[in-house]
């Protein structure tokens, strides 16, 4: 249904941009749910207009090298435990080691490819297009985010695209799924202010969904199915995304030039981080991230993946082939697909379109959570979404590379309980050797005793190789950064860059066992059938309450203390061997608290450590986004009470009603409890103060969707 219009109050100018329709006329696209296990390739897969070049050499190095390294590691581990025969526990230890080692071996091989490619080739940015002929919708899906932050970023991106001279090819959309009434009204106020600022010719739109069905995937699907027909492409942002106009124009031009392209993904760099934890992540993503991403892009070729934002998508192809089905069963493994991006990439690739990544394209940015606890909360949702992919993995017609992407996402979280199990089984074997009298001669005839020992020398060599394989991508990133002048200078020079890398390695080593326990807990949580919610991500820099930190990490500290005591009782050498893991767990509360402090992060910044080029010389669009966000925050929309703002401003109230969709049909007598309670409280209220005090969250949300209740609310006296 088309957006409603409203007559402007007499005080409003006729050309007031705020009173234009909040959305353009609908132009629907059918977006049917796809059948995962029914696919006729001959009928449903399009033939590419151009032949896709397969990067066989890169794939041979990555997967062949990873397999060879895994075989070597597995063989060495077998020789380590083979001294004196192999028991059932030793076999379990070997299987777990191979599973974990294969994971880091594959990352190492991809890092080698990325390192060599970046070392011997130079990426050349494409020439700016003379003209863009296809319209692109720039989408900003939002869910209970801080409005000043989101709208300030979008305004900065809009300005940068307009400055490129190609602004006429883009329309801009805020797609709100917010369920907080105050945030919803603050979004509308920010939207109205931005529209008035940009003028009547700015194609800026806002839509709020009454129900956030299927979450972000449903938000995008709602846009595509109602307005997608007007746009050849859509560029999807996240609430913390910032993109330069040059990057957006380059993506649109690349999509126009390649009719076989379905999705083109960029590599977002992390910016604007101040806590110590976030600065460590920011530094690692900037120095090591390009190596891994480039290696990934080399072996993927046109069989790539989609990360859900900072990417451009061919709208009609997405509508025809990326409608997500509901998985069988109940959550956490059934229901709607949470990590939708991997599945959408697999489906559009199955249909014959390419999915590519341009990791070297500059101008793509994002932020990351400010603390360890915030990452744990986000990863809980991501963990559930990736474990759901176990059900999608055997879907019919998927490209092998798409299945590999699913396995990668699954292993990101399953690796943690596997690592934990490997540690625990190793401890049990040592306990068995220390306290249980060995049976040197079994019932089977043998001339030699079965000694319950390990090959210590081979074990030490295998440990050294494992650490080298694990740390090699970091070394590759450091070498490339030292060679590249702008990166080296932006990181504070060679000495500070090396010191920052060493600091990051130590911090990562301490944080790794904590994340192992967090992810292992998430996996077990879902295996026992518990679902997770979809809370808005905390993006601002700020400390977490110390009591919350204690509650979250006390089990990790207890585990560390137990491992320390057990190790010392069994063998001091075992405790020394496990000391990095033990130290990280025992210090979990202190690390989580300290790394979440903005003051500590800024102190490290003043020392010149963990600096990145984007921090030393902030990108123009990012600096402008921060400036505009601060100016918008100063207007007080973020923290205002939505009901009071709506009551005090008749113009805002008129626009809010205009932005609402037509009221759904309601049979007589069908009254929800929230509506009944809201109406009763409004009828009983003497003034606005009573209404604000009495109305609960769901009742406020119901009121804001109901024109009749809004009229009743508007007639209340202002109060004191």
Give the overall pLDDT as a whole number: 91
Helix run count: 29
Number of strands: 10
Which range best describes the helical content: under 10%, 10-25%, 25-40%, 40-55%, 55-70% or over 70%?
55-70%
Which stretches of 5+ consecutive residues score pLDDT under 50?
A: 1-14, 445-452
- Amount of beta strand: 5-15%
Radius of gyration: 28 Å
Shape: globular
Structural class: alpha/beta
Major β-sheet strand ordering: 3-2-1-4-8-6-9
The oligomeric state of the chains shown is single chain
Distance between the termini: 41 Å
What's the main sheet like?
7 strands, mixed
Give an account of the 3D structure:
- The chain has 29 helices and ten strands.
- The protein is an alpha/beta fold.
- Strands 3-2-1-4-8-6-9 form a seven-stranded mixed β-sheet, sandwiched between helices.
- Strand 1, helix 4 (147-163) and strand 2 (170-176) form a beta-alpha-beta unit.
- The longest helix is centred in the middle third of the chain and has 36 residues, at 400-435.
Topology:
Blueprint: H1 41-44, H2 56-81, H3 88-120, E1 136-142, H4 147-163, E2 170-176, H5 181-198, E3 204-208, H6 215-227, E4 233-236, E5 242-243, H7 245-257, E6 261-266, E7 269-270, H8 276-287, H9 289-300, E8 311-314, H10 315-321, H11 340-350, E9 354-358, E10 364-366, H12 372-392, H13 400-435, H14 456-483, H15 485-490, H16 494-527, H17 546-570, H18 572-577, H19 579-586, H20 588-595, H21 598-606, H22 613-616, H23 620-633, H24 642-648, H25 650-659, H26 673-684, H27 688-694, H28 697-705, H29 707-714
Parallel strand pairs: 1-2, 1-4, 2-3, 6-9, 7-10
Antiparallel strand pairs: 4-8, 5-10, 6-8
